[in-house]
Amino acid sequence: MKYSINHRSPVPLHAQAEELLRKLIAEEAYQNGKLLPNEVELAKLLAISRSTLRQAINKLVFEGLLIRKKRMGTRVNQSTVSSKSNNWLSFSQEMKLRGITIKNFELHVTWVEPDEQLAIFFEIKADKKVLKMERVRGKPDGPFVYFVSYFHPRIGLTGDEDFKQPLYEMLEHEHSTIASLSKEEISAHAADTLIADKLQIATGDPVLFRKRFVFDQGDRPMEYNLGYYKADSFVYTVESRR
Asked: Among candidates 152, 159, 146, which has minimal Cα distance to 111?
């Protein structure tokens, strides 16, 4: 395989390195246990920094595709080669895999000052404005979820990004921010006037409320997401394996 990266391409170097690694580990030799090329040598060959290469490797380690051990090198994780990834997806990606066509009914982006809870989560001052994105989404015949997302100023969002594309892919490719950990809280709520209007239901109707805390590869908070789902049109499934 030819090891090369296009340094003139608008695609970030770490994203190109990741794509190269995905092709590399698909080769028979690496599927059979051969160690991946030494990190120092590969970074030098590609003319990129070790930190850039490590960013790509870390993502594949997180997805369970690679195993990295100190002083032993990096190799393909044999136990997950043929199994589905346990990595979570953006809403758009998840619905696409389920064969569901999604329509955006509303999309609003504004800059707001965080409340106390959000400021504590992001570890920022209360007068530091954050980007807030609101989206109402659903099937072509009607909405079934209302999302409210807040993003850490560290990411560098301007508000001019195309938020119609898969969110986490956009954050990775345009802002070099990789979502690596998601913690969620799920509860049942009664729709207030705002939620009822967004989801085209009656005030007081039941909704599934999901609070998602998203962290980057350095375990730093990057997104605070609130999701309100119509109870009669959405099932939240959790699969566990021992």
From this structure: 159
- CB neighbours (10 Å) of residue 150? 20
Q: What interhelical angle do 50-62 and 13-25 show, nearest 10?
A: 50
Q: Give the position of tokens 């080769």.
A: 27
pTM equals 0.63
Q: What is the pLDDT of residues 100-120, one digit of tens each?
A: 788 999 999 999 999 999 999
| pLDDT, tens digit, 9 for 90 and up, residues 180-215 | 888 888 999 999 999 999 999 999 999 999 999 999
Residue with tokens 């594949």: 60
- Collect all residues with Cβ–Cβ distance below 8 Å to 77 and sequence separation of at least 6: 64, 65, 66, 67
- What's the token pair of residue 240? 């566990």
Q: For residue 46, what are the CA distances in angstroms to 27, 30, 43, 138, 162?
A: 19, 19, 5, 43, 30
